[in-house]
Amino acid sequence: MRTSRYAVRAASVALLGVVLVGCSESSDGPDVDGPATSAAPSKPAQKAAEESPSPSASTSAAPVIAVGETGTFDVGETDDYGENYKVTTKMQVTAVSAKYVTPAEVDTTNKPKQGQYVKLTLTLKNVGKAPAEIMTYGMMQWEDDQTAAQDASTLEGVGDGPDLDTTYKPGQAVTGSLVLDVGRRGGKVSYVGGDDPGKGPTFVVKLPK
Length: 209
Hints:
By secondary structure, the chain is an alpha+beta fold. The protein is built from 2 helices and 11 strands. Keywords: Signal. InterPro entries: DUF4352, Immunoprotect_excell_Ig-like.
């Protein structure tokens, strides 16, 4: 029996169509068994991570001490623009005593503007590896639960005994007194003479009542 050439050609065309349809469904269909790909981080997220500021070089909190206690604080410096603070050395502070005094007891006729004089005796010691300059005048603030921070510095008692305001080489220490003008007994006195622009007080002394 002879097969028509037209019948053979028709069968070939039909078979080719089946193959093409199969290939089309395979390429367009979902790849269920293919490996999962993780989404790349978005550009805004990458930019935010790159622009996030680095932490300050100073990470220690200001010590808060009472009479008879000792704390350690950082001393550092910034660049010429007051930025890029870095710690250069460490100081130790001990609150030796805090005595409330009258003007006569500190040999002055000036009455305290805030209300009360207190003679605060401190020991400062350089426990780091580089010199540290300490300047307390104009850098001592007093506050309590009722009164916001006020400048407590005075010139009373200056020249009596060792001066705390000096440059401390590694290992050096000074024990000296400051006569401060505070609102009332109690509260706390803060030294705010540090150079770290992102930090509050350098050290805090709680006064007795």
